[in-house]
Amino acid sequence: MLNWAIIGSGDVVNRLVGKSFEKRGFSKVKYIFSKNLKEAQKLNKKYNYGKVAKSISEILNDHTVNSVYIATPPYLHAGYIKIFSKKKKFILCEKPLALSKKELNYILKICKRKKISLITSFYRRYLTRFKFIKKILDKGKLGKIITFNYRLFHSPSTHPTAPFKPKKNMKNLPWRFQKKFSGGGNFLDMGAHAIDMISYLICDIKKIQTIKNNQLNFYKVEETLLTNIELKNKIIGQAIWSSVVNKTQDLFEIFGTKGSVIFSLNFSNDVTILKGKKKFNKNIPFDKPFHKNLIEDTIKKFTKCKLNKTYIIEDQGFKVANIQIDATHND
Predict the structure, then answer these.
(1) Which residues contact 70 (CB under 8 A, 6 or more apart)?
(2) Which of 4, 40, 53, 100 could in theory staple to 58 by disulfide, Cβ–Cβ 3.0 to 4.6 A?
């Protein structure tokens, strides 16, 4: 039986997770902890998780808790992983895992030394729509893949998860746009999923180059970022994120010798396949809550590890985090 503690009480837990950890006889939430006690109490009442922990020590002292889900802003990830790894808890952590190479290498080292199971929450890999697209590509329906591009455009007020109206000397800027909390802008936040999808759908990344700027100065992290990407199979492509334009667009295109596929990573349910003059449209909704499939798979993996007294580290989490950090930091 997996007994979970949820660390964090923000949008991710409420909108993406819900009661996904509850599986009779296999998994249940025993605690929720947050620095925002009122939000934790609100979520606990809504989802009937178990109880609100008043401190991390309360969770650590309960030896029946064997699994932890970390859903805090990124600057807290490494610290919590350190705390719970010492108690040998299974850990599911939101992305990005770390804000620097130093933190990332430390996480990898401590998890291997302690033999801790750690999975990064790249949940899009588990959604039906992206599994469908991967199946098309793997079967060669588009022929040999030649190139790809991705772009995510929006204004500050139409940000998918952290909309705000920019003002001078803003005091309540969303944490995603404060480097000390998030490590960067939209590239480190939503861009992590795009980078992971490139690895998942096409091939692991060999090299990534970035050009970034900040023209409107709404915040100190980058507003627009362009990437040139080379994959290990020599395919090249591009991706661009901009958080300050007056058009909202979320478009992923993959081109092959026999056709192409066009889809959205965040919004539209449509998947369009183009082959010559033929056009095929398929409506594949996002599974909801978004984390459900990931969590179900994580429960299976952690249960297996518990029974066999083994551990697992999901490699793609470290690969993607490393790529992100290389692109935005020098440390």
Answers:
(1) 7, 8, 76, 77, 80, 81, 84, 91, 92, 93, 94
(2) 53
Tens digits of per-residue pLDDT, 220-273? 899 999 999 999 999 999 999 999 999 999 999 999 999 999 999 999 999 999
Cis omega (within 30 of 0) for bond into 156: no
Going from the C-alpha of 58 to that of each of 42, 100, 313, the distances in angstroms are 19, 30, 26
Instruction: Tell me the sheet residues that pair with 23.
Output: 27
Rounded Cα distance between 154 and 163, Å, is: 10
Residue 256: alpha-carbon gap to chain centroid: 27
* Closest residue by Cα to residue 65 from 95, 89, 40, 98: 89
Evaluate whether 270 touches 283 at the Cβ level (below 8 Å): yes
What pTM, to 2 d.p., does this model score? 0.93
Distance CA 235, CA 123 (A): 24
pLDDT tens-digit map of 267-292: 999 999 999 999 999 999 999 999 99
DSSP code, position 17:
I
Whether residue 199 contacts residue 316, with contact meaning beta carbons closer than 8 Å, is answered with: yes
Bridge partners (DSSP) of residue 205 are: 231
